């Protein structure tokens, strides 16, 4: 396929999942530090990226990627430690790799959560202050900025169902978190631009929704449009708008123009009408007939093209699109043929959709939130006992695909 000029090949990680070094420079605690994970595992060491970043940047350089998407630990910055990100950004630039910084990848500081977290409007101002502090330090060297990663997952899993930290099961009472995440995004966009930041966008998790009737519209509104509409059109889906704590001027803030739109895609979702007693307007149904990842997620590359088409049809002025996350977990194997097949299908689907770049999740095996180390997403295998890095066959495939 013909690539657009300056197509951006990248890899992604997040701070909590790879950095470790919880005690470095007095890092403050996050809501994930004590949240239960598979087998009682924790991320206090994770991939020790905090200390081994030079080794990891060297791996990226040998891979041939043009960009590294990482996140900045809000708890670490609250403790005054921005020095690590200074060193990381400089190391990336020296290797010819563009830094792509995410401000918030789910690791809310405990002190912020205790003050109400994303359910509280005051968190949006604290987040804007965080954006300013980071932008003043790094805006001169970071190529692309993402204020909030996957607000849908924070809202739905963290506040509505309790599967993720902070572990609240509020169902529809979680909706204020959605608005405050969107508002925090908008305030951070303004704060970053005030510090001289260049390209500012977002990274929303999206899923095409399959099924019949009102259940499809309801689920798609909650997962997709509750977060895309206020950013790209300055509105909420009609039936949800009255449930959101919107004040005058808020939607003008959330819809600040973006330089790019990031799509995080893993799989489609199937729904049906809810059974009796279900408080939700839909019921999830298994997507069958496709290969599955180690997480049990169906592998459907065409769903990525479908989702980007849906976005373009809904928003006529959609900014340039990047796939900011797409990847798969499988049981450990150096000859990971299943991951190669996954990547080949999804890269082709992304190119067919005409995106500007593709970031695979993830550079290396990491701490996968409530699943601990049980799920391995990495192009690079990490022995979490010794921290030895071993590139998998998929690493070589991705390197060769980039070269082609």
From TrEMBL:
Family matches, as SUPFAM superfamilies: (Trans)glycosidases
Class in the EC hierarchy, top level: hydrolase
Sorted UniProt keywords: Glycosidase, Hydrolase
Xref: InterPro entries: GH (IPR017853), GH_1_N_CS (IPR033132), Glyco_hydro_1 (IPR001360)
One Gene Ontology term of the molecular function aspect: hydrolase activity, acting on glycosyl bonds
E.C. code: 3.2.1.-
Keyword Hydrolase: yes
Family: Belongs to the glycosyl hydrolase 1 family.
Protein's UniProt name: Glycoside hydrolase family 1 protein
